[in-house]
Amino acid sequence: MTTSQKTALITGANKGIGMETARRLAALGTTVLIGARSAERGEAAAEELRGEGADVRFVLLDVTDEISVRTAAQHIDATFGRLDILVNNAGIAAGPQAPSEVSAATVRQVYETNVFGVIAVTHAMLPLLRRSAAARIVNMSSELGSLAHMADPGSPWSAYTSILLPYCSSKSALNAITVLYANELRGEGILVNAVSPGYCATDLNRHSGIRTAEEGAAVAVDLATVGEDGPTGAFLTEDGPIPW
Ligand SMILES: NC(=O)c1ccc[n+]([C@@H]2O[C@H](COP(=O)([O-])OP(=O)(O)OC[C@H]3O[C@@H](n4cnc5c(N)ncnc54)[C@H](OP(=O)(O)O)[C@@H]3O)[C@@H](O)[C@H]2O)c1
After folding, report:
1. How far apart (Å, rounded) are the C-alpha atoms in residues 80 and 91?
2. Ligand 1 center to 91 CA (angstroms)
3. Which atom of ligand 1 is nearest to the CA of 200?
4. Most exposed residue of 58, 68, 138, 187, measured as fewest CB within 10 angstroms of its CB?
5. CA distance 87 to 112
6. Strand, coil or helix: what is 37?
7. With a 6 A CB cut-off, is 63 part of the ligand 1 pocket?
8. Checking DSSP bridges between strand 31-36 and strand 240-241, what pairing results, if any?
9. How does DSSP assign 76-90, residue by residue?
10. Residue of the nearest CA to atom 9 in ligand 1?
11. Ligand 1 centroid to 170 CA: how many Å?
12. Pairing of strands 85-88, 56-60
């Protein structure tokens, strides 16, 4: 690896939008670390991408397990000494259920991955990102996390937001976290953004989405590779900013 070679870690990259983000970043010449909570699924994904000529390695990483997160950071430190790109992609949903039917336990479970997992991984990887000349953090959010959409009864997303309290509110929290990290890290040249990939057909929604995972990955790759004059603390689709 040359010192100019960039290294990216993508959480939940063994399938779906995370794996397509890995494929696209690798095609740009980035060394990509496939974070996955299953060694079998992670190795299989890395093997598939290596078969396409990509420089891709598997890293065992369950974002809800502090020891797993710490061990992954130690491994990346020992192998690469720094990290240039972090894509917090791993995510889960629960439901459908009316908001009044949802238990705190269900919300807590979703937040463990979608919110606390992002904080744990970002906290562990920041020392490595700070060693990069131009670090980028991309948080995989969703338009379903937009408070503006949730507050609009005529929103085209209301059919989803009205039955997905754990998921939607977890992505609102993720958006807030994104802005707060961006504010702190702006002065260090670390750009932090939340992206929405659009409604993509993946296991998350039993393949009901209308876009491909590859199309969804495009905005994450754009922000992962954006120049120093790019946005930070923004909430973006590939067509531009989304209302918070
Ligand atoms: N699909 C959409 O329409 C859509 C729209 C907006 C936003 N998003 C967001 O995009 C991201 C990727 O979703 P997707 O649609 O590609 O879904 P997916 O195909 O279900 O992929 C989710 C990935 O997250 C991983 N994951 C779940 N919990 C994890 C944990 N504790 N530790 C590590 N990895 C974990 C899964 O691993 P396993 O294989 O082990 O389960 C899988 O690799 C999510 O954050 C999602 O909220 C998706």
Report:
1. 26
2. 4
3. 3
4. 187
5. 17
6. coil
7. yes
8. unpaired
9. HHHHHS--SEEEE--
10. 140
11. 13
12. unpaired
Q: Which atom of ligand 1 is nearest to the CA of 213?
A: 16
- Are residues 58 and 124 in contact, defined by beta-carbon separation less than 8 angstroms? no
- The model's pLDDT over 129-188, given as tens digits with 9 standing for 90+, comes to 999 999 999 999 999 999 999 999 899 999 999 999 999 999 999 999 999 999 999 999
Q: How far does residue 58's CA lie from ligand 1's centre (Å)? A: 16
- Residue 7's DSSP bridge partners are 31
Hey, is 138 helix, strand or coil? strand
Say yes or no: CB of residue 92 within 6 Å of ligand 1: yes
CA 2–ligand 1 middle distance (angstroms): 31
Sorted by where each starts, the structural domains of the chain and their CATH numbers stand as 7-241 (3.40.50.720)
| DSSP, res 186 | G
Q: DSSP state, 225?
A: T
| Nearest Cα to Cα of residue 135 among 35, 70, 74, 225 | 225
- Please identify which residue in the block is written with the tokens 């991955």: 113
Q: What is the pLDDT of residues 38-59, one digit of tens each?
A: 999 999 999 999 999 999 999 9
At 186, list the tokens. Answer: 């702006």
